[in-house]
Structure formats: structure tokens, C-alpha cells
Amino acid sequence: MWTRDLLMGVRFAVAGGRPGWARTTLTAIGVGLGVALLLFAASAPSVLQNVDSRADARVPIWYEDLAPGPDTLRYESIPTVYHGAQVTGMLLQPDAGEATTATPPPGVAAFPAPGEMVVSPALKRLLDSSGHEVLRERLAGYEITGTIGDAGLRGPAELVFYMGTDTLTDAAADGTPHHNRTDAFGASYPPTPLSPMLILLILVICVVLLMPVAVFIATAVRFGGERRDQRLAALRLVGADRSGTRRIAAGEALAGALLGLAVGLLFFLLLRQAASHITLAGTSAFPADFVPSAPLAVLILAAVPLSAVLVTLFALRGVAIEPLGVVRESADRPRRLWWRLVPAALGLMLLLPLAGAYSAGSGGARELQAGAGIVLVLVGATAFLPWLVERGVAAFRGGPVSWQLAVRRLQLGSGSASRAVSGITVAVAGAIALQMLFGGVQAEESGPTGYDTDEAQIQVVSSGMTAESSTGMLGELSGTQGVLDIFGSYSGYAVRPEDRQLPGELVAPGVYIADCTTLRKMADLPDCANGDVFLAADPDDPGEGTFPLPGPGDTVDVSVDADGAAWDPDRAGPDLWTVPDDALRVDSVGDPLGRWAHGILATPGALDGSRFGGGFTEVLINVDPDDRVDTVERLRTVLFGMPERPALWEIQSAWTSDEFASIQRGLLIGSIAVLALIGASMIVSQLEQLRERKRLLASLVAFGTKRTTLSASVLWQTAVPVALGLTVASVAGTVLGFVLMRMVGLRVTDWFGFLPMAAAGLVVIAVVTLASMPLLWRLMRPEGLRTE
């Protein structure tokens, strides 16, 4: 019985003439969009695993002491940045030269010879295109002899290069051991554990992004419900019983769902092939990376058809399909409220006990409880919306003709309108809660740095330069186009020999060699000339934890490290220097990075920096604000070829943790996909409703109704449910966000986080209305009066 009736429903779906094909096509497209997005979500573990495994596979295995051999090589990481994009680079030097038996990095066929390099396809395209002369200059001197294969790249858009060289040694420029020899690639390091706040944030993101998909699929299988019920009434006329008509309807929905699975799989395969050409927030992946998890794929393949059948049977529970018509066309029984509040109440009951108890040691049970609670609250918002739309439109009276047409249509049957808005209601409610939690977590995972970006925007540091090299670098940087001011110092440490006997772990005062302009950024100086020396201390800092600051006439050892010990134990002895008797004591001032100098400030004529045991170079640069981007790239190019590998940092007024930044990128990618799905779902639903009202629209035009009036009525029919849905979403999202923040002990900082989401809803109204206009005007033609 079930099999026969289900097969009959399938035949109605695929061989029921143009109306049946149209309904099945709309259902298949709607379900297909949702299935495709679910398959991409199910592929996320595979993508992350594949990307991370390829990244780990190219990391050299570190050895503290490895003897050279035919299968070993020296390496040095030389990354750079170009217009905000990370460029991963490495120098390679096999110990045995061309006779090496060492295995090259993944994706590289053979080690590049000195003066040669292999690059990723994306980097090669960048170098070959116009407008990137600065990057070509940075990598000049190396001939491109090959490209890196997929096995050596995190994604197709990654910028990577390997350079061949014969200049690497076992010591850095400052003489310290390098430990840069390996015999294999493939090191892996355990990931940094996430904080409870970030774990909860990820959990909320997953629920918020996937819930609208499930709602949309449930909505799609109910497309064309009114015409379907009329066909079922005709079947009752020829002898089918009520149970049989429900089974036939289930079969029709099953056919649309199965076809939707096929369409979704097709969408998934097509979009997967295009994945290599898409880069979102700096993230890309290869098509082969998108492999849905087997358990999740099986769950999707089973849940979608099953949910289609269950949703159809549930929708028919209040419809009396009789041989002479469908009783639903008379007045509907008012929707009941009590059971619609149960899911939200259960969700809050699950979430409230977690307030203040959600911690790093909570375990999977707490995460499952939190996830279930979030889902139930969002389901409750969706269940409450149809009741609110029904009661809301019932109270509307009067108004323009377009308003009355829209309201009357909603009063006669608000179910389809409510279903169309359910997806955006869930999405907006979740987005509001997510925005509140996101804002609270952002306060913990980011914040102001306190740096003065008006004084300096670039910091350059190097710990391996000699005093002579440091002076040369300052000259090159100051001559770079776009540099307005430059403040550079060469520093070491100094301690009086007798102070080394002091107990405790103390830090030696610094010795800073710089010109007077730079020293004035570090202390409040009187007159300054080359050859002067100053003793700077923070007037508000007693100097606890540091060696005593030397005074005028004191003898100090300038060959020590920060702990006051000899920098080079093999050195013959200390390098003693006497502080001039005329050295002035001055108060230090905060530099652009908010630091206060404590130590000796010397001009180049007073002390030779080559006497330091190990010198540290720091440069703060003020650049032309109108040419900042290009100036930064020119500075990176100047520094890239230096053997000491100075590091350049852009000084930021705010900081963000790396983990939080990664979650931000994932949220951006998921939000774009879900917003696209929501827009598509509402457009498809609106087109389906217009198609069912073709004769009515044509009749109204035939009786003299203006086309602009009907267009405005369509706008109102979309706007009213969306407005009510946004109201429900705002309340539910705000309550959910408050509870989530209590779970991790955060305070609400923004009670108006729903406003951007409400604005997004208005944009959706405009997009859906504009997209439906062409079909609406076509349906209002006289041909719409024809019937079969």
C-alpha cells in the first residue's frame, strides 16, 4: 500500500504536466541549494585536515645538533609580506650540493641551484602581471626555474617560493649557532588550545550558519502546496481515501527531495571545481580538499528525504482533503500558542544552568548541552513566527489598495509567507546572538595597543647586526621614497662589575646609541650634541628588578647580556667603559610604543657600538600617509636582501589574537554562503507564490487594477512578514546573546546589536522584490487567464 501510493506520488511529481514539473523543479532547486551548502559544511573537517597536513609536510624537522651528510641540507626561513598577503619563503642549500640525496620539500621536484628559485603558481602569476614591480625587485637575482605542486601548498592562492643558495653557514650574522640543518620535512606541532569563549563562539557560529539551511530545506519541500492539495482532492473524487492521499503527497515530496539531492550534489561538484578560483579572507583550498565526512554525508542523504516526508505529513495534519475540494480554503482554525513557546523554554532551561560554568574543562557534554539549547531557542523563534504573523495581520484594517490586497492575501493564508521568512528569522536571531557574543569575546581577544601611530607607523628590528651594518641600514631606510622621519637606535646592556654580586634575578640597564633627534623621543633632554651622554630613568618607576643605574664617572661592562652575564663566554674579558663625568640625569618619556627608557643614552661620538657583546637595532619610521601602502612595500624590499633578516612590523592601534582572527575569517566565509542561500530561498519562495496566483493577478489587471498597485502589494506581502520576523528575531537573538555571554562570564557591551541585522532584512526585502518584478509583470498579461 505504502509503496504503491508513494510511487504514484513520484509519478505525479515527474509526469504531472507543466504544473507538476514546475513545482518539482522549484523544490529540487530549493532543496539542492540547501544540500550543496550542507555538503560544503560537511567538507569543512576534510578541508582543514588537508590544508594543515600539507602545511605540516613542508616544515623542516628541527635538530639541535645534526652533522652534515649526503642527505642533509641547510635552510633558512625568509618570509615576507606583500600588500597584506603572507609570502612564505625559504633558502635551501644541500650539504652535498648537486650530489645530494636529500628529499626536497613537498611539491618541489628538485632542489633549485644557487641563483634559482621555484615558486607557487599564484606567485608566478603575480610576478608576471603588471603593477608588481616592487615584488619583482624584492625577489630579483633569482631565476624562476619551476613551480611548486599542489602537495607543497596550503591552497591554490598561496604565495610560496624556495630559493637555492650557497651562502648559508652554521652561524647567524651575530655569531650565534643557527641549528638550521635538517634531513627531512614533515614536522608537526600540537595546536594551541582554544579558550572556552572561542570554543563557544565556534559552536554558536556552526549552529547559526546551519540552522537556516535546515529551515530552508523544510520550506522548499512545501512549495506548491495549494495546487498539490487540489490534485489530491481530485484523487479523492476517483476513490482514494484520506490516508492514501497523504501517502501520495509524501511520495510527491519524496521525489522532489531525491531530485534535490541530485541537484545539490551537482551544485556541490560544480562549485567545488570553482573553489580553486575563490579566495575569501585570504583562505583558499583545492577542489580535492572538499570531501564530505562519510558519517555526515550519510546523515544528509538520509535526513533530507525523511524530513521531506515528515514535513509533508505534518503540513497535512490540519487539512481536510475531500472529493469536492480542500476545506483549508475556508477559515483556518487559529494557531495555538502554548506549544510554540515550549522549544524556546526548553532551550533556556538547558542554557541557564551553564551560566558562569562554561570553562575549558567543561568537556563535550557541556558543549552538546549548549548546542542543543541554542538550537531549541532558534526553533522556538521559528515556531512562534506563524502565530505572530497570523495575529498581526488580522488586526490590520484600511489603507491604500496595494496595502489592502497584501493584507487580505496574508489574512487568507499566512502560512507560505511565514515559511518563506523562517530562514531569515533564524539567521537574524542567531546573528544577533552571535554579534553580542562576538563583541564580548572581541573585548577579551583584542584591544587597543596604546601605540602612537601618529608619530610612527613602522617598526624595524634586528638582533644580528653589527654597528656598522646598523648605520648602513638606517641610511638606506631614510633614503626610501615615502619616508618622512626615521628614529633609529643601536643598543646593548651595561652593568658595573661590582653589581654582578647582587642577589636575585636582575635586568641590566640598557645602553642606547642614537642621534639627538632619536634620543629626544626617549627622554626629556636639554641641549644635545654629538658626544653627549645622558642617564635616563622613569621618574614614576623605582627601578625594582633591575641593576642600579650607573652614575657619572662609573665604570661599566658593555659586553654583557640582559642578565648582566658575559654575552660571549669565550671572550677574553669584559669590555669596560667609563661613563663621562658630565653625563646628565634626565627623565625618560614614553616613546611611540609606550615604553620608558631606563639606562644610558649615548650619542655616536661618545660610545662605539661595536663594543657591545650583541647589539640590537630598532628603527621607528614615520611615513607619508598618502603613500603608506607603497612605502611599506618599498621598505620591505630594502630589508629583504640583508643577511641579518631585519623584521618589519606595521604599528597598529589595536591588537587581535591569531585564533580570534581565524574565527573571524571562518565567520565571514560562512556568512557569505548563508546570506546567499537566504536571498535565493526567499526569491524562489516568492516566485512560487506568484506562480500559484497567476490567474488571480491576471484577473485583477483585467478588471482595471494598476500594475504598479500589484507591484506594491507584492512588496507589502514580503515586507510585513519580514518586519514581524525581524521583531521576533531581535527579541530572541538578544535574549540568547545575553544568556550566552553569561555562560562565559562576559558583560553585554552593546544592546543595539540587532540594528545592523534589521538593516540587512530591509536589504533582503528590496532584493526579493526586485527579483520578483519580471515574473510578476509577465504573469499579469491576459495569457494568465487561460486554464486547462
Automatic annotation (TrEMBL):
Residues annotated as domain ABC3 transporter permease C-terminal: 204-318, 670-781
Main location: membrane
Compartmental location: Cell membrane
InterPro entries to which the protein is assigned, alphabetical: ABC3_permease_C (IPR003838)
Coiled-coil parts of chain: none
Membrane topology: Multi-pass membrane protein
GO cellular component: plasma membrane
Keywords: Cell membrane, Membrane, Transmembrane, Transmembrane helix
Pfam families for this protein: FtsX
Official protein name in the record: Integral membrane protein
Lineage: Bacteria, Bacillati, Actinomycetota, Actinomycetes, Kitasatosporales
